[in-house]
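Our consortium's second objective concerns turning raw sequence data into structural hypotheses that experimental partners can test. To show how far this objective has progressed, the report includes one record in full. It was chosen at random from the queue rather than selected for favorable results. The single chain below, 191 residues long, was entered without modification.
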Amino acid sequence: MIIETERLVLRPWRDEDLEPFAALCGDPEVMRYFVKPLSIDETQALITRLREKEEADGFCFRPVVRKADGAFIGMAGLSRPQFPAPVPFAPCVEIGWRFVRSAWGRGYASEAAQAWLRFGFETLLLDEIVAFTAELNVPSQKVMQRLGMSHDPADDFDHPSVPEDHRLLRHVLYRLSRENWKAGRAEHVSR
C-alpha cells in the first residue's frame, strides 16, 4: 500500500532508504528532542523493527518521499508503541514524524500526518490516535495542534525509555478522537 498526498509519497521501506535515513537519524539538530542521535547500525535496527511492525500491524512509520524530485525527506506514520514500563494511555496507536532539516517549515509533517490520520480513522476505524513528544519539543507540539489534537496536562508523563535525570524525561500527550477528526474535517470543508 502506498499513500499519496498532493506533494508526497508515503511508501514501504526499501534497502536504499538506509543511507538517507541514517543521515537523518544521525543529525544532532534533527535528534535534539531524542536521547541521542542514532548510529548507522542503530538506524538499520530501527528500520528492521519498523518493517516488523508493518508486517504485524499493517502500518508503521514509513518513508516520506517528495513527488517533485523523488527525494527521501523523512518518515511519518502510525505505530503501536511498546514501552518498557506501563503508561496510562497504553495500549494505543500513535502518529509521529521525523524530517530532514531542509524540509522543515514547509508543511510536510502536517501534510503527511493528515494522510495518516485519514488512514487511521477511515481505513483502520480507530477510535483515537495519540501523539507524544518531549515537553521541550514545541515545533512538534505545534504540528499536533494544527492537526486538531488536544492536550490535557493531566495526561503528561515521564517517558519510561528516557533516563530519570535526562532533560527530555517529561513528555506531553496529545489526543484526537475519530469524532473530533470528522468534525474538524467538516468544519474545514464548510469554510
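The partners drew two points from this record. The two ends are 32 Å apart (CA to CA). The mean pLDDT is 95. Both points have been shared with the crystallography group to help prioritize constructs.
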